Amino acid sequence: MRTRLIRFRGERSQEEMGRQYGVSQQAWSYWERGVKNPSPMIMKRIEDDSGVPMEVLFPDIFNNFKL
Fold first, then answer.
1. Strands (E), 1-67
2. What is the mean pLDDT of residues 31-41?
3. Residue 23: which residues within 8 A CB-CB, separation 6 or more?
4. CB 26 within 8 A of CB 19
5. In a domain? residue 15
6. Does a structural domain hold residue 54?
7. pTM above 0.85, yes or no
8. What are the contacts of 30-34 at 24+ separation with CB within 8 A?
9. Which domain holds residue 17?
10. CA 66, CA 41: separation in Å to the nearest integer?
11. Residue 67 falls within a domain, yes or no?
12. What pLDDT was estimated at residue 62?
């Protein structure tokens, strides 16, 4: 569960968020549950809009990469 992404959504519905980012409600739901990932371009837009680094919004993706 991506809690920071859920917090960013706040009181808005998944459908509203999907419209804002050009995806379906189902796609947004998948992202929140970590079932699927948004494209890098959409992750960047969410990062810019939320002010939260994408590494924090999507920790499961970035925690798998070790430098």
1. none
2. 96
3. 38, 42
4. no
5. yes
6. yes
7. yes
8. 31/2, 31/5, 32/1, 32/2, 32/5, 32/6, 33/1, 33/2, 34/1, 34/2, 34/60
9. 3-62
10. 22
11. no
12. 85
